[in-house]
Amino acid sequence: MFKPLFRVILLTVLCIFLLSYSEVEEQRVTDMKLLWGAVDIPPKIAADYIHTVIDAHRRFYSQHIVDRLAKTQSLQATEDWAHEGTLLLPDQFLLASSQTANNQGIGMRYRLMSLWPINERNAPKSELEKIGLKAVVDNPKEPFTWIVDKGSSQYFQAIYPDFAVAQSCTSCHNNHAKSPRNNFKMGDVMGGIIINLPLGKRKVSKVDLKVLLPPEVVANYIHSVVASHRHVYSKYIVDRLQDKNILRSTENWLQEKALPLPAQFLMETSQVVRDRRLGLDFRLISLQPINRSNGPANEFERVGLEAVEVHPARPYIGQTRLGGRDIFQAIYPDLAVSQGCIACHNAHPQSPKKDYKMNDVMGGIVVTLYLQ
Ligand code: HEC
Ligand code: HEC
Which residues, 6 or more positions from 176, have their beta carbon under 8 angstroms from its beta carbon? Predict the structure, then answer.
């Protein structure tokens, strides 16, 4: 007589158990989404990061390489640098780095352009780009952003103003035979840096902060910009001028009126970016550093450096904590790409490793994104 009742009770208990269990499961899934969703980055923030890194390099190169060496060494930056044994113009430096980054095929692209270009290829390529450039000329406080559909994919685009920050900007452009404008003044917006970020095939009609980019994608973009500038600086400035016996790069570059070492070039620009306090940082580190402060800062960085030594084809990524804050980090291998790298490190009295060979992993570029 109790049997059916017992069955009902048993079934009810079972149902309650299953229901509460699935609730727990569901709860766990939303927790995960919250955790991962919260770390994704709006494209506007990603573009701000990328622009800050480009701008830091542009300023450091203009002020501490071009302007300083013009004064201390009478070494000029000229348009025909390849034949004249001179420095690349700041604009050519940015163009070379953007070509290097754009050719890596990671989707992100950037370039320098203007409504009054000396070189026609730096003119706006669409009506929208023209509108965007006019907008930043009229209101340089804000970058101009929009989303464009290019058929196969949608792109987030942002144009940031490029200012006449030195007398040399205005005097060279105003006097250049091919310049369509000759009344630039200090502080004027002379053009803009456009940044393109692919968003995929989602249909978004207006700039929508709901479209987010995973942090590893944003870290890849930052790394690409840093590595491209590092490459252009090493190849077109340090190696070329050293090979031609025009100027050397030395550790005490400021006192010796020389070029900063490639590592110092990266560190100086990373300091500029850090000072902006945007929640973005990048550094050059190594397990065998010449400068002990370039060693790994935490366990994650140590394991990551070991990992990219074994698998240099992919970055080591993950979330960790630093100074009480949640951070996302990605570590990319830094390779011995020239004889100069290994000759100098192997001979340096403070270097703990003396047997680097070509293409060895000498350390890593670590990109850190502070999560909100
Ligand atoms: C010694 C001459 C010289 C100096 C100094 C110079 N530029 Fe240029 N600039 C050029 C030349 C030449 C180009 C075209 C490069 C190319 O072939 O793409 C250019 C390109 C540009 C462009 C892209 C549009 C265009 O005109 O083709 C912008 C924007 C620009 N410069 C802004 C600046 C700013 C800002 C500064 C100062 C930080 C500066 N320039 C310093 C000569 C100069
Ligand atoms: C003329 C000497 C010289 C050359 C050339 C040179 N380096 Fe360095 N490198 C240094 C010095 C000195 C430091 C330490 C800078 C500091 O932080 O004070 C350094 C720092 C580094 C670091 C950070 C860890 C450390 O050792 O402190 C890495 C990684 C690195 N270099 C890799 C390279 C690579 C790759 C190349 C070639 C593209 C290269 N270096 C070319 C001298 C050189």
Answer: 118
